[in-house]
């Protein structure tokens, strides 16, 4: 592993990497050092072939209250851009998450605000406790979201709702976001681990090359026009016919048995 961690807790077990934001006395505010470690942990999880699913969560019963507001007193535009280029959520962290060829799941309980919400939205799926509270409160600090909030929300929930959230700074519940298609699964807090386990096991049971292609193809739907997306989808679909797992999948179906995936 590339160096030790103190602001995140990073562990790997049974094909699952778990990255826990660990700054609970500040609601896991995304301090610079924490962002650096988060970047390192994500890169490590992306690199490690044994890791097939990645979980991102917060310590102490909350996901994250977002960017470190204390640091904002000293930021100027140049500093802001240099930090965004090094460890910003919109470009750097989201790019690592979205380009890694394995699912990344945000597990959210408690507060998930500002950069915390942006980080969760960058993940492939969000599983939340019923009492989780989301929002983009930057407007109340004389700011706007700077980690992808305006862009991802507009794509996920449409212009009007996105404007409502970023212009009022109002909080929104996990259930409301589930209805709007931003959160995948919402369960009572005491059922959160069970729900995460069930989703993780389902993902671990899938053929990894197809899983990676599925992720990339859906990513492209948000990043390109329809025609380019359809072409890329066809190429990804076609490429899977070169995998052993594709042949195994078809054979197992025809032989009425469960497939045994090889991961290639
Ligand atoms: N950055 C830095 N410190 C933060 C923080 C943040 N985003 N969010 C919370 N903290 C700190 C508080 O300053 C406080 O520190 P202190 O103990 O040294 O005074 C500590 O965490 C506890 O926060 P507090 O506000 O006292 O707790 P609360 O239970 O009353 O409220 C929140 C919790 C999360 C609702 C509230 O802290 C909050 O609104 N945080 C900011 C959210 C935000 O605007 N995020 C967008 C940033 S751009």
Structure, explained:
The chain is built from 12 helices and 9 strands. The chain has helices spanning about 30-45, 70, 75-85, 90-100, 115-120, 150-155, 160-170, 175-180, 190-205, 210-225, 225-240, 245-255, and strands at about 10-15, 15-20, 55-60, 105-110, 110-115, 125-130, 135, 170-175, 185. The chain has a 6-stranded mixed β-sheet with strand order 1-2-3-4-6-9, with helices on both faces. A 3-stranded mixed β-sheet has the order 5-7-8. Helix 1 (about 30-45) runs parallel beside helix 4 (about 90-100), helix 6 crosses helix 7 (about 160-170) and helix 10 runs antiparallel to helix 11 (about 225-240). The mean pLDDT is about 95. Coenzyme A binds next to helix 2 and strand 5.
The residue ranges in which pLDDT falls below 50 over 5 or more consecutive positions are none
The tally of helices reads 12
CATH superfamily name of the largest domain?
A: 2-enoyl-CoA Hydratase, Chain A, domain 1
Run of helices and strands: EEHEHHHEEHEEHHEHEHHHH
Q: Into how many domains do the coordinates divide?
A: 2
Gyration radius over CA: 19 Å
- Regarding quaternary structure, what we see is single chain
Strands of the biggest beta sheet: in what spatial order?
Answer: 1-2-3-4-6-9
Number of E-state strands: 9
Class of the largest domain, according to the CATH hierarchy? Alpha Beta
Broad structural category: alpha/beta
| Bound chemical compounds | coenzyme A
Task: Let me know the average pLDDT.
Answer: 97
Helix content: 40-55%
Described by the principal axes of the CA atoms, the overall outline is globular
CATH architecture of the largest domain: Alpha-Beta Complex
Characterize the biggest β-sheet: 6 strands, mixed
Distance between the termini: 25 Å
Portion in beta strands: 15-25%
Instruction: Write down the CATH topology of the largest domain.
Output: 2-enoyl-CoA Hydratase, Chain A, domain 1
């Amino acid at each position: 592993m590339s160096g030790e961690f103190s602001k995140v807790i990073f562990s790997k077990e049974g094909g699952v990497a778990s990255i826990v934001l660990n700054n609970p006395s500040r609601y896991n505010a995304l301090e610079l050092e924490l962002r650096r470690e988060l970047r390192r942990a994500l890169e490590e999880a992306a690199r490690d072939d044994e890791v097939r699913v990645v979980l991102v969560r917060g310590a102490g019963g909350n996901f994250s209250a977002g960017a470190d507001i204390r640091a904002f007193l000293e930021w100027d535009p140049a500093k802001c851009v240099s930090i965004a280029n090094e460890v910003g959520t919109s470009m750097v962290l989201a790019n690592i998450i979205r380009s890694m060829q394995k699912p990344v799941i945000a597990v959210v309980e408690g507060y998930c605000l500002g950069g915390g919400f942006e980080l969760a939205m960058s993940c492939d799926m969000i599983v939340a406790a019923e009492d989780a509270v989301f929002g983009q409160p930057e407007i109340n600090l004389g700011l706007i979201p700077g980690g992808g909030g305006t862009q991802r929300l507009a794509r996920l929930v449409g212009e009007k709702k996105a404007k409502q959230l970023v212009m009022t700074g109002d909080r929104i519940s996990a259930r409301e976001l589930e209805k709007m298609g931003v959160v995948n699964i919402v369960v009572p807090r005491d059922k959160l681990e069970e729900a995460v386990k069930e989703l993780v096991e389902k993902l671990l049971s899938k053929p990894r090359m197809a899983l990676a292609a599925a992720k990339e193809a859906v990513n492209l739907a948000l990043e390109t026009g329809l025609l380019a997306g359809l072409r890329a989808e066809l190429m990804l679909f076609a490429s899977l016919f070169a995998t052993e797992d594709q042949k195994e999948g078809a054979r197992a179906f025809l032989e009425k048995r469960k497939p045994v995936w090889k991961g290639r």
